[in-house]
Specification:
Structural class: alpha/beta
Number of helices: 14
Shape: globular
Number of strands: 13
CATH class: Alpha Beta
Radius of gyration: 21 Å
CATH architecture: Alpha-Beta Complex
Order of helices and strands: HHHEHEHEEEHEHEEHEHEHHHEHEEH
Strand content: 5-15%
Strand order of the largest sheet: 1-3-2-6-8-7-12-13-11-9-10
Helix content: 25-40%
Largest sheet: 11 strands, mixed
Length: about 475
């Protein structure tokens, strides 16, 4: 029984749907396998902060009845999906990893992406952990404690979507809805050895509004590219609550993944011109990039893609943080993450002219990348400068601030689509991610490149070593 449940827990969303259609197994069995895996591993990983078994089982039973009648409701009918605890979910608290939010209140509304998942029959079963207000790149918070990496429980799964990445890597659902405002999908995807796609800015509608919205995107974490493409096909639909979101009709990304790599002009940058990379990470990524050459793509090494944008990001975020937390009383600080409190305090002297200057610099950076993509269809880099590091710390030894994830946040500033895909393991058995970046609005191209790489070099679909029996 356990072996079959384990196999079902690591079955992709697309294969679950094929199994439902053939009657090999049901949405109820898929959910039972997910919950069985969750019960076994939640004490080790601490990846979930809310679970609703009854609602999930009711949804799975309704889905099973639809499949028996041959009338599935949508593209994800019966597939278990988790939601990061930053995103509004009807009937469930959205506490954002913070003790400053009161759980005892009405939660009457789904955010746009969650609403699209429900409409397409997804079985929502729980909310995944996040650092407080998704404000840092590892996942621990005063509310939920430390979330751990399923490849090594003494390492972080990254953040801020670390609960989502740990869950998917460990077979607790094939899909997770996550967010990314500086790397928060791609960082944990890299550290947990799964696939994560940050869509173009505006591709997936967001609500409620937030000062960080222009940096943020909602997107999928999954174990396969095809599963992420399927989920993006569902959630990338217009919603009237987000006036800045794309109004284009949804794209069936999952049906368009095949492409000809021989047409691609790819720039590979091992540093972007300013990131100091661990030598083992660089070696693994350089070897992985040869896969695109083997597929027939034209790959060119580019040493410098941009000047270091960290000072720009710091000045821009200072104004956003000052606004976002302007009404937070100082007496609340005792309940909050110390690192976040330091950022809030440092933002108190934010200057409007400085903020608008940073916005102009941001626009110039975006224009420079548009020009870059006149020469190159895609940019490939390491996802991160380092392998997973110790839990309970905010950054690896030898790196300050955001330097260790300097490959991810520039493309939040420019709002370009970017994905992280597994490309190997360190000698210590820890996952390494490869980042693929596309021109604005070219999400399909990024997914096609990731799919081509996955087909050429499939990554293992097995339980991570730290949680394998």
């Amino acid at each position: 029984m356990n072996a079959s449940r384990l196999e079902l827990a690591f079955t992709s969303a697309n294969d679950l749907l094929a199994g439902f259609a053939r009657g090999r197994f049901s949405p109820v069995e898929a959910l039972e396998a997910t919950l069985w895996q969750l019960d076994r591993l939640q004490p080790k990983l601490n990846a979930f902060c809310h679970l609703d078994r009854r609602a999930a089982m009711d949804a799975a039973e309704r889905s099973a009845n639809r499949w028996r009648r041959g009338q599935p409701e949508g593209l994800l009918d019966g597939v278990p999906v988790s939601v990061k605890d930053i995103i509004l979910t009807r009937g469930w608290p959205t506490l954002r990893g913070s003790r400053t939010i009161t759980p005892d209140q009405e939660w009457p509304e789904d955010g746009p992406a969650v609403a699209r998942l429900r409409e397409q029959g997804a079985v929502l079963f729980g909310k995944t952990t996040t650092p407080e207000f998704a404000a840092k790149a590892v996942t621990d918070s005063p509310l939920t404690g430390i979330t751990r990496n399923p490849w090594n429980l003494e390492k972080t799964p990254g953040g801020s979507s670390g609960g989502a990445s740990a869950a998917v890597a460990a077979g607790i659902g094939p899909l997770a809805l996550a967010t990314d405002a500086g790397g928060s999908i791609r960082i944990p995807a890299s550290f947990a050895g799964v696939f994560g796609h940050k869509p173009s800015g505006g591709r997936v509608a967001m609500y409620p509004p937030t000062p960080y919205a222009s940096l943020a995107a909602f997107g999928p974490i999954s174990r396969t590219v095809a599963d992420a493409a399927l989920m993006l096909s569902v959630i990338a639909a217009p919603d009237r609550r987000d006036w800045e979101a794309d109004t284009d009709p949804p794209v069936a990304y999952h049906t368009l993944l095949q492409s000809d790599p021989r047409q691609w002009r790819i720039a590979f940058s091992a540093t972007l011109g300013f990131v100091t990379v661990d030598p083992e990470i660089r070696r693994i990524v350089e070897q992985a990039v040869r896969t695109f050459e083997d597929l027939g793509a034209h790959v060119e090494v580019v040493d410098e893609v941009m000047k270091d944008p960290r000072p720009l990001l710091e000045r821009f975020k200072r104004g956003l943080t000052a606004y976002a937390f302007r009404n937070t009383p100082k007496e609340a600080y005792a309940k909050m993450d110390g690192e976040l409190v330091k950022e809030i305090e440092a933002s108190r002297n934010a200057d409007l002219i400085e903020h608008l200057d940073a916005q102009m610099e941001r626009a110039a950076l975006a224009r420079s990348m548009i020009a870059f993509h006149q020469t190159y269809d895609l940019l490939v880099t390491p996802t991160l400068a380092v392998p997973p590091f110790a839990v309970g710390t905010n950054r690896p030894d030898g790196y300050d601030g955001r330097s260790w994830y300097g490959f991810t946040f520039p493309f939040n500033l420019t709002r370009q689509p970017a994905a992280s895909l597994p490309c190997g393991f360190t000698e210590a058995g820890l996952p390494v991610g490869l980042q693929i970046v596309g021109p604005p609005r070219q999400d399909l191209l990024v997914l096609q490149a990731a799919h081509a790489f996955e087909c050429a070099r499939p990554w293992p679909q097995r339980p991570p070593v730290a949680v394998a029996d």
